[in-house]
Amino acid sequence: MFNFCIFASGAGSNFIEIYRFSKKNSNKMKINLLVSDKVDCGAVKYAKKNEIDYIIVNVNLFPNAKDQETRIIESLKFHKINYIVLAGYIKKVPIKVINDFKNKILNIHPSLLPKFGGKGFYGMNVHNAVIQSKESKTGVTIHFVNKDYDKGPIIYQEEIPVYANDNAEKLSKRVLRLEHKTYKKIISYLINDKIIWNGNKPEIRKIYND
């Protein structure tokens, strides 16, 4: 049994999809904690409704960055967390958390990294950049998190075409649907021991039907 913590800042659609997936796979995983920087975001509301423990960590509650880090680390330890999943979390994860959970923090990015990644590239910013650059394709990238924005080891990428009549809003909806599908798939690989390391590169050991 793996204990998961989700970090989310927004509506929480990926969080909701992962939570539903966890209930179907309750013999392998459980979401024990939500970490958010937004008091009334959709993810927090969903956690309350479904009786999932959550903490709010932001500059208003914890003006000192070290105190923010401490609050998160103490909560992760209390809930015996094995893996962290970032699901639309817009704050930078404290470096000690990254170090303590090396290769155990997953993130999904709405582009084919390394394109349109890095600081400032999140949400609609990414999709606007894809459209403005006249890309013929985009997609999602799932990777482990390290200290650099969107530069951690890539586990999986899946692409979709960018159509001539696409705008950022249309594209974002299609990419989000892809996020929901692929994130659950990779988490399934993770809890079923299908992700292995070849040197510094994670690989999916065997593709199987989900």
Layout: helices, strands, pairs:
Blueprint: E1 2-7, H1 13-24, E2 29-36, H2 42-49, E3 54-56, H3 65-78, E4 83-86, H4 95-100, E5 105-109, H5 124-132, E6 137-144, E7 154-161, H6 168-191, E8 195-198, E9 201-204
Parallel strand pairs: 1-2, 1-4, 2-3, 4-5
Antiparallel strand pairs: 5-6, 6-7, 8-9
Beta percentage is 15-25%
Multimeric organization: single chain
> CA-to-CA gap between the ends?
19 Å
Shape: globular
* Strand line-up across the major sheet: 3-2-1-4-5-6-7
Which features would summarize this protein structure in a list?
210 residues; alpha/beta; 6 helices
Describe what you observe in this structure.
The chain has 210 residues and is an alpha/beta fold. It has six helices and nine strands. The protein has helices at 13-24, 42-49, 65-78, 95-100, 124-132, 168-191; strands at 2-7, 29-36, 54-56, 83-86, 105-109, 137-144, 154-161, 195-198, 201-204. Strands 3-2-1-4-5-6-7 form a seven-stranded mixed sheet, sandwiched between helices. Helix 4 (95-100) links the parallel strand 4 (83-86) and strand 5. Helix 5 packs across helix 6 (168-191). The longest helix is centred in the last third of the chain and has 24 residues, at 168-191. The model has no long low-confidence stretch (mean pLDDT 95).
Structure at a glance:
This protein has 210 residues and is of the alpha/beta class. It is 35% helix and 24% strand.
